[in-house]
Predict the structure.
Amino acid sequence: SQTIHQWPATLVQPVGSPLSLECTVEGTSNPNLYWYRQAAGRGLQLLFYSVGIGQISSEVPQNLSASRPQDRQFILSSKKLLLSDSGFYLCAWTGLVGAYEQYFGPGTRLTVT
Amino acid sequence: GNSVTQMEGPVTLSEEAFLTINCTYTATGYPSLFWYVQYPGEGLQLLLKATKADDKGSNKGFEATYRKETTSFHLEKGSVQVSDSAVYFCALTPISSGSARQLTFGSGTQLTVLP
């Protein structure tokens, strides 16, 4: 069966510091991968998605970036965090067939101080 | 473009009450429809799905029927439990979404079930 991991689970970082969040998927090949941010407790904002290694599409211009160095690894980064980057970051994957439902990881709670 | 409109919350019910959370959508083509649930501090879990008109998705006592004529996918449960307290999201993905397969989400509905 497929599983998706995210780490770290929680992170407290000062303004201006760098960021690296990692997401890995097991049990599937060539998935689509997605990064979302959830602020204010509810709404989901799609940040990036990737349909293959090295292929990144950005949905919202900001100081975040994403990379996909391996088929099942997706990384979210920033060179300098802002207070507004605080939130709950979720990674998700979807497969090549079926209804294209997305499966989500457990999330990373980021607090920028 | 695609959009999902769901019932504004919060919704507060007593245990064993009947639940309905309304969801309507706008999409080109024939989308797949989903309900996700998010428990506090956790990621989203797929609750149920439907891929064509008149399909009924069901899981854990929850049901939703794909109504193309009313572009709706309302979530129902006959008898809620305290453990159902969570945020519920309605979502869609168009079959013709190409390789991106992006989901469009509703804004979420907070459900609280009181004992």
